[in-house]
Design brief:
Layout (H helix, E strand, L loop, with lengths): L4 H34 L5 H12 L2 H11 L3 H26 L1 H20 L11 H19 L16 H6 L5 H29 L1 H8 L52 E6 L6 E4 H5 L3 E9 L10 E10 H7 L13 E6 L4 E5 H4 L6 E6 L2 E2 L9 E3 L13 E7 L22 E6 L9 E10 L5 E8 L5 E2 L1 E2 L9 E9 L2 E11 L22 E6 L1
Parallel strand pairs: 1-10
Antiparallel strand pairs: 1-2, 3-4, 4-7, 5-6, 5-10, 7-8, 7-9, 11-12, 12-16, 13-14, 13-17, 15-16, 17-18
Helix pairs in contact: 1-4, 1-6, 1-8, 2-4, 2-5, 4-5, 5-6, 6-8
Amino acid sequence: MKTSRREGVWRPVGLGALSGLLAGYAALATAELVSAAVRPESSPVIAVGGAAIDRTPTAVKDWAIRNFGTEDKLVLQLGILAVLTLLALALGALAARHRRIGSAGVLLFGVVGGLAATNRPDSTSVADALPSVAGALVGAGLLYCLVGRLRSPRTLRSPRSLESPAHDEATGGWDRRGFVLAATAAAAASTGVGLLGRSLNGAQGQSAVASRDQIRLPAPASAASTVPKGAALRVKGISPYMTPNQDFYRVDTALVVPKVDATSWRLRIHGKGVTRETTVSFADLLGMPLIERNITLACVSNEVGGPYVGNARWIGVRLADLLAQCGVRPPSKGGPADQLVARSVDGMTIGSPVEDVMDGRDAMLALGMNGEPLPFAHGFPVRMVVPGLYGFVSACKWIEDIELTTFDDYDPYWVKRDWAREAPVKTQSRIDTPKPFARPQAGTVMVAGVAWAQHRGIDKVEVRVDDGRWQQADLAAEDTRDTWRQWSFPWKATSGGHTLTVRATDRTGEVQTEKRTRTVPDGASGRHSVVVTVD
């Protein structure tokens, strides 16, 4: 049966695109397997994703966090895979017409992936390029072979058949059986290789999981005070006073959560003013006097009324004591360093004011959270916690290095991206209930939420209905000035549409400003409001 000219034109393009898709699949599967021999973070999807995060404009990052929340990394990875899929289809279609050029295109993307991997902040050697390069070689070779099957065995001997599907159509069709067998075998082999690579990469984290399972946190030398009765209000819809670990917000740049073995973890402390450079192990920290404190953390990416704030019970080593053992003095006492740069295992750098971490507040190297070792997603085995500062200038997770330096000498990760060098948490409040656009019944409606001004404390919360006067809300009992406070306000609701607005006043007398600002460079400001319709 003769093949129509239209079918003869589109068949090689469509099958070429399919070949490109299979070649891309094989490349990623091979890279996954090779990354198990190098390190999981060298996988091209992770490397390219990390490079994309580093080079994404601040406004775009802010938009992603605002719209996708803690799922922003998953969205990025899916986006990368979607782009790679389209590129693989395009290169396959190109290879159907120009076999060598299409295959060379796959190699080019291997080079891009290799460069992305070796230029990551946490890259340790050129070996990080191997997964991308190996994947590209396999993908390019497979694409070249599959496209070759789109020509008949007889025409493959002709030089013209290498670059001309029209010549192939005129001289005898294509190797249908050979293509199907090769494509099926490639898909099956790639699946097996990818699953093996995923399994091996997963196994590398098992030692970290085992080390966490074996940890028994000792009793703290200084325990947290008992949460006062009345600190947690019994109001439906309000945030719980203590945030469960699984509900605690997570905002960072790590596409893959690092899994660090606590038995091999080390922390180096060095730099200006360090008279006794020190390296400590996890066991060393466990043997030091531990403090336990309830502390509320807030992310600078939190919009007014946003969810990126939580309260937890932390246990760890007082950071000021550890620094003092190394001979560090704050600037107010003649120390030469005014910035502490914390480095994470994933290459993140976070700068904190030395004065703040040594001014008597409960800044700590946290080992535990809500009665258990830190979850991996929240920094296991060790992270920094500094009450009163936004996380981007204090809360280094998976920490492995502390360097004492100055703000003039070094700009950490976020400062290079237009965020502020110093960022104390702003006085903020939020309405948890009723939710926006709720339709409560007329009568008494309980308006409730939380307010926070870490290291200063909340003195007063007020609520305004529409354009009326400010009315004082009932404050829950205060735990410490480093924790948020719940509040409630019994509103005599009348029928119709209404706007509810909240503001807080901290212990310094500062009233939460009504001026709206975005999160960049040092946190959002403004007053949270919700619109409801009373039936």
